[in-house]
Amino acid sequence: MFDPEKFIEEKISELGEQIEGKAIIGASGGVDSTVAAVLVSRAIKENLMAVYVDTGFMRKGETEFVSNMLRELNVNFKVYDAENEYFEALKGVSDPEEKRKIIGEKFIRNFEQVAKDETAEYLVQGTIAPDWIESGGGLRDTIKSHHNVGALPKDIGLKLVEPLRDIYKDEVRKVARKLGVPVAERQPFPGPGLAIRIIGECTPEATDTIREACAIVEEEIDSASEKGEMERPWQYFAVLLPVKSVGVQGDVRAYGYTIVVRSVQSVDGMTAAYSKIPHNVLERISTRITNTMKDKVNRIVYDITNKPPATIEWE
């Protein structure tokens, strides 16, 4: 039986002995990285610097949200604006594994620069068990390279610290509740961000489109859950397909993109079942997305595939 209080006590003590000097951590606003940041912050105090890298592929309003949260948790942090770097690095790239590896390496290069500025020797990551299991190695097949595992460059100049490596998402949430982390129940968000919710090249236009679509899906499902219309899913978002189909706007022929709504129930992310979202909620999502982006999107579909055979994210 997992005991979050015992885990916190032992981990803070262990981290205090493991980290001799300064450390940095990438703080995305998700539960994994936030829990890792709070644990390390309590262990080494001001010797930790949390770095929020704005890659341009973050959720709507995320920079302000994360900044306010870290401030309230008394974690040292800085915002690193790298949006142009990431768009340039991903120009012309469509393969999902290549995207993940490019983003993973960019993350590390950004952190190496911050580490140099902060004279830090350690890189803390919010890696959890499913990340390294799915990234393969040894006898394990590579399902997909998580940016904080399989996509790490071999010449990384920092010592890795992974305080959550041996626990699963449901256990991380228990630790978050004990620590008073406000994102304990927040749904997972992939390290590469919206880049892997765009099937194909990650252009600024495609990114703006999927950012708005994801926000609408989250807002409508959150609202429906709060009203008791449905159970809150484990993870829910939108995916932009590189497929256009014929539609109608008024009396005029339209040719727009397709958005996929993805929503699943899970415990630890290793397996998942698609959410049985009520049709009236799906209709609200569809209507709002197509009305908001009527010049770009004209078709909404719902993914009813479990994991396995699919993964939760499309890439």
SSE arrangement:
Layout: H1 4-18, E1 23-26, H2 31-44, E2 48-54, H3 62-72, E3 77-81, H4 83-89, H5 96-118, E4 122-124, H6 129-134, E5 159-161, H7 169-179, H8 204-226, E6 235-249, E7 252-265, E8 273-274, H9 279-292, E9 297-302
Parallel strand pairs: 1-2, 1-4, 2-3, 4-5, 7-9
Antiparallel strand pairs: 6-7, 7-8
Helix pairs in contact: 1-2, 1-7, 2-7, 8-9
Task: Looking at this protein, list some descriptive labels.
alpha/beta; Rossmann fold; GMP Synthetase, Chain A, domain 3; four-stranded mixed beta sheet
Structure description:
There is one protein chain. The chain has about 325 residues and is an alpha/beta fold. It folds into two domains: about 5-180, Rossmann fold, CATH 3.40.50; about 200-300, 2-Layer Sandwich (GMP Synthetase, Chain A, domain 3). The chain has nine helices and nine strands. It has helices at about 5-20, 30-45, 60-70, 85-90, 95-120, 130-135, 170-180, 205-225, 280-290, and strands spanning about 25, 50-55, 75-80, 120-125, 160, 235-250, 250-265, 275, 295-300. The strands form two sheets. Strands 3-2-1-4-5 form a five-stranded parallel β-sheet, with helices on both faces. Strands 6, 7, 8 and 9 form a four-stranded mixed β-sheet that branches. Strand 4, helix 6 and strand 5 form a beta-alpha-beta unit. The radius of gyration is 20 Å and the shape is globular. It starts with a helix and ends in a 13-residue tail after the last strand.
